[in-house]
Amino acid sequence: MTESQGVEAFHQLELNTGRFLIQRCTGCGKHVYYPREACPHCDSTSLDWISPKGGGTVYAVTTVRRKPAEGGDINVSLVDLDEGVRLMGRIDNLAPGAVSIGQRVNARVQVKDGKGLVLFDAVDGGAL
Q1: CATH code, residues 55-122
Q2: What is the domain partition of the chain in residue ranges?
Q3: pTM for the full predicted model
Q4: Which one, out of 5, 7, 10, 84, has a CA that is 20 to 30 A from the CA of 115?
Q5: Nearest to 121 by CA among 55, 71, 46
Q6: In a 3-state reduction of DSSP, which class is residue 92?
C-alpha cells in the first residue's frame, strides 16, 4: 500500500481483484474491520492485512422490499466473522425470508463490472 492510497482505497482495490482482507493489530492482537489507520482497541497504528478464514454467523437480518422490476426483495445482514469483526452484507444463496439469526455463512468476493463486494453464502440450506 502506498502512503497516498489510504486504507479504504487499498481495501477496495484488493476487493476489486477478488481478495477479501481485514486488519490485525500487532499491538493488541485483535482483528479490525472496517479498515482504519489506527486500532480502535488500543490506538496502535501497527496494523497488518490478513485474509480471514471467511466463516461467520448471522447476527441480525432484515429484508429490504423492492419491486420485482428493481430486482425484487433482498436481505441485509450483519455477520460476525469468526475473527471477531462484524460486517454488513447479504446472504446470496438463500431467499431473503429464509435467512435467520445464528445461521452459519461463508464470505466470498463477487467482482462485477470491476468492483469487488463481499457477499455470504449459507453453509447449510443454501441454494435459491
Answers
A1: 2.40.50
A2: 7-50, 55-122
A3: 0.86
A4: 84
A5: 55
A6: coil
